[in-house]
Each structure stands twice: as structure tokens, then as C-alpha cells.
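S.,

Sequence below, as promised.
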Amino acid sequence: MERIDRFEDLVALMDRLRGPDGCPWDREQTYTTLRGYLLEESYEVVEAIDREDRAALREELGDLLFQVVFLARLAKEEGAFDAADVVRGIAEKMVRRHPHVFGGAQADTSDEVLRRWEEIKRREKEEADGGGSRQESGSVLSGVPRALPALQKAQRLSTKAARVGFDWPTDGEVVDKLAEEMEELRSAVDAHDGDAAREELGDLLFTAANLGRRLGVDPEEALERANRKFAERFARVEDELKRRGVPIEEAGLDRMDRLWNEVKDREAGS
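The prediction came back faster than expected:
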């Protein structure tokens, strides 16, 4: 087989897979069946980035690109669009939204670039809707995918609102708001009010995501770091119990808590 190293070569390969003499599995796939693979490959790209594994990143980017080509092929079969339309569309969008690079506009800071990006995006939406009002053509918050993880969505929503001035003046006020939401959650818990507790927990998490945004910390990444730290520490507690010959089911909270603190102390010491 000839070497494949161009985008159009990959498109041709997909045409072959979906063709009459191609692969039975590939010919059976639909938008719905590919949805899960698209999400999985996206997360594997993120995992390779987190591990700083460039070889894995190259491979996972290829897998993700294959899903893009696959979905474009399905659309071509419907007569909706093809891979070339996808490339052309994103290239034209990037040129339109970077007038400070491809036009005569000027933007000296990232904040200016982001504000102009949102302005151009809203204008494009209004034009696509026939020049209707902002309410008819979409909110400032439009464009945030519904399928985003909730914590990441909170960051994106608050970022869009902040770009038009709807934000706390200082980081300290967000911390104060976080404490306020914590007290409201405590009151709901003390009252054994499950519905109120759910709402207050959501408010607490949303405020925490806002604080992360202001501090330049991705809340999704921060939570994932906390997940990994918890898993690693708990695994050390399990190892220590095994070393002592204590079944974890019989260890009890007090013993596990002592071991947990020992693990933390060793980490601090190292």
C-alpha cells in the first residue's frame, strides 16, 4: 500500500473502507454509533496531554482525526457536506475571527482577541438568523455545548459572561461567595432537605468553577488532579493494610484514617 501522509489520503482510505468492497464493520457505522468513539478518543487525547506523552499524543490525535473523517464521510453519503467542506469552513472561520492577523484590525492582548472573537461570533449568529435581535439570535452564553462535563461547562458559561463585564470585581469576593454557599449548603444538610442540598451543592460547585477561572486554574483539571491524588493515597493505605495482614473490610474508619494521615505525612516529608 502506498504511503499515506496527507489529509486527502486519509479521506480516500475512508472512502475505501465505506465502499462496496470495504469493511463490513465500517459500513455499518452511523452518527449514533460513532458518538461514543468520538468522546472516547477525545478523552484519550486529553489523557496523553496530561501524561506529557508525545508519542501517545501523536497516536491519539490520529485516532481523533479518523473520527472526524469518518463523520464527514457519513455526511457526504447524505449529500450534506464532505471533508473538504469541513476544512474550508474552519479555515474561513479562523480568518474571519482573526482580523488582527489577516486584516487591518489590531489586538495587542489576549483579552482583546477574546472580546473581538465573541463580538464577531455574535455578529455571525445574527446574520445567520437574518439580522434578528440578540434575544432571537442567541444569548451571549450561546455556543457552549450541552454535552460538556458540568464543571467545564460552568467555567465556559462564566467566562462568556465575564467577557461582557458580568463578574466579581475581586478574587476575594468570589472566596466570600464560596463561604456563603458553603453555609447555605450546611443549613440544607442540617435541615435534611435533599432538594435544597442538591441546589446549594450546585451553587457551591459553580462558584468554585468561577474562582478557578479567575485564578487561571482549569477546574476540570484541578478536580482530576484531586481524583488522582485520592486514588494514589488510598492505594497506599490498601498496600499498608495488606502488609499488616488486615482485610480492608475489617480495618475500620479509625485505622484507615490513621494510615491515610501517615501517607500524607510521608508525602509532605518527601
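The two ends are 53 Å apart (CA to CA).

Coffee later?
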